Amino acid sequence: MRPLLPSDPARVGRHRLLGRLGAGGMGVVYLGRTDQGALAAVKVVRAAYADDPGFRARFAREVRAAGRVRSPWVVPLLGAGTRESTPWLATAYVPGPSVAEAVEECGPLPLRSARVLGARLAEALRDVHAAGLVHRDVKPANVLLALDGPRLIDFGIAREQAGTALTATGTVVGSPGFLSPEQARGTGAGVGPPSDVFSLGCLLAFAVSGHRPFGDGSPAAVLVRTAYEEPELDGVPGDMAALVRSCLAKEPGDRPTAAELRAALGGAPPAEDWLPGPVVRLIARRSAAALALPAVPPTTLDGRGAAATRAAGAAGAGPAAREAAGAPTEPAIAPPRPGLPRRRLLLGAAGVLAAGGGAGAWWAWGRGRKPAAAVRKTLVLALHADLSGPGKALGTAQERGVRIALEEFNSRAEHGLRLDLLVRDDRGDPRRAQEVAEELSADGKVLAVLGPSDEDCAAAVVDRYQKALLSMVSVSLGRLPAKGLHTQRVFVATRPVDDALGGPLAVHLAHTVDSRHTVFLADAELGATSWTVCSRTADALGASTRSERWTVEEDTDARGFAALAGRVVDSGADAVVFVGGARRTAELARALPAAGFEGARLGTHHAVTSSFLGLAGRDAEGWVFATPFLNPLAEESTGAFATAYRRRFEGADPPWYAAEAYDAALFLARAVTELGAIGYERGGLVRQLRETRYEGITKALYFDPDTAAYNLEALYLFAVEGGGFVYRGRAADGAR
Known about the structure:
Elements: E1 11-12, E2 15-23, E3 27-33, E4 39-45, H1 47-50, H2 53-66, E5 77-81, E6 88-92, H3 99-106, H4 111-130, E7 143-146, E8 149-152, H5 155-165, H6 181-184, H7 193-209, H8 219-228, H9 238-247, H10 258-265, H11 277-291, H12 304-316, H13 319-324, H14 342-347, H15 357-368, E9 377-385, H16 392-410, E10 417-425, H17 430-442, E11 446-450, H18 455-467, E12 471-474, E13 491-493, H19 502-513, E14 517-523, H20 528-541, E15 546-552, H21 558-571, E16 575-579, H22 582-594, E17 600-604, H23 610-616, E18 624-627, H24 639-648, H25 658-675, H26 682-689, E19 694-695, E20 700-701, E21 716-721, E22 724-730
Parallel strand pairs: 9-10, 9-11, 11-12, 12-13, 14-15, 14-16, 16-17, 17-18
Antiparallel strand pairs: 1-2, 2-3, 3-4, 4-6, 5-6, 7-8, 18-21, 19-20, 21-22
Helix pairs in contact: 2-5, 3-26, 4-7, 4-10, 7-9, 16-25, 17-18, 19-20, 21-22, 22-23, 25-26
């Protein structure tokens, strides 16, 4: 949960807001508390919807329909404000994780747990369908886990969103990977109860195997596979696989009903032990964290901004600060719900958060016996890089940047942590990288990995790290090599992929060169990346510039580059872009002046090396390169880092990627400190990294769910002047 923002309301309906639980396309979900102490999840609709009279009418109808659902496995609707200036609705608060979070943090569910999950969700869908509703967005993120069973959420909101958008043929609404074929085709008709059964089949396959039955990748690709291809059910046990496959029939009429699915799954074991131990402990930690939330003082003077600011400040501050703000220093705890065993209340039951004396005593002990500042918890991070092979310089730069970052982190005591660094060298060999990954995965002390520094090594180990739920935070990887690297949730790329380099190249061509005719040369030796960068640059320039795109074959020699340069001159181009490595770029650099070309010459970071300068000689002058790294000696924000680097490493200037590695390490450290509220576990860190924002010295690091990437703007330009690379600054500045 995150603090309230200054723009957030302090109260919605009868709920005093305590913090943000999440946000989506339709609105923001808050944790709220009534004056009687009951907790609720309060969803507030965004203004874009609130101002639409048609939406308001549909929203009111859906809220009324949702109120008709009676099911122990559906989170109940507690209240709504359909006529208020900002519409909202409140449901019971469930402190447990979603199925998506549980699988991510604790691994796939055992078959026994998955059968209970399926049986009770089938009951939930049976009750939803009986009320005349279709959920339309049954997915792991919309199912919360509690000790007495799962809870289906968001059926009212998801139904309204789908019902609104699906009135237009060809529009697809929902979550690719868990949509039915009829939803994936966007036909606008035929989406009924069988669609929910199909989605439940996808959810069960994911819960028991950890993989989506129609794979990962772009939403369009997943939708096509859903509509026309058979599911991949590897990892789903035989008897469950047969049942799941029946749910995933392409034709709605061939699927079982929710009631039939419930009967096929059989009886459920006792509620109190249906989940595995790691998930139970996760529920316990979240329940305890929610119990520790303080009450929020009433607001009578200021508007929305000031009220929310005080509430957020009181919720996030220590006891002394909360007392000064007028907030009670002990939490308000809801009374126990009759009929639930006392020990289960301690761990968190669905719908109501309650506790006996044990939980309250634990919370008070934790606050009253805060460890002394000298007692710090030690955690271990690992660096996995090429430190002695062909990429030694790059790996060493990253190791040094990480060491400076952790030394700085450990010099501060306020976070109560110490981060030790375990360094492993894969020598740039994918087989050796796999050995390193096995070692680090098996070492329970290692919380996360920085690296690898080589693309092929990263591709070789990402599945192993994913299985171990071990975050791999990369600094320099930009190519999209083997299938699965950028689709695994443990992989955190803190720099843009190479495909994004077309942006700064286009900015320079349009705003500095003012090119009217550009020839793009894609180097086959670099692979698909080269062609993609050339194509995206040309597309960004649009019709204002004439573009020609040629491929430079791998066997092109010096004579071939000379002929190529002649073709460029004959074309009348005033600019040339070559996306290739240092040696091949140097070949072209020498050939262009000899052919009489005097226009602009652009390349990418693949050639920003001393070898390019040496091979091209004076013909390197004037070349401009797009890079994903900055010059730490030329930015004000990196000045202190450059000074620290020189002091630490005998006067040496920080090389490329050292400052970026420093930022990646502190971004990881920030996520680790934010993880403290729920416990330092690998799976929790995987999720926390997607919720952490770090303002670094090179860039801001945060996950953007719209692009599924951590940063797309950290791109820069260098030019060769006086025999060396001169930093031109951030590429975005060239458009101003």
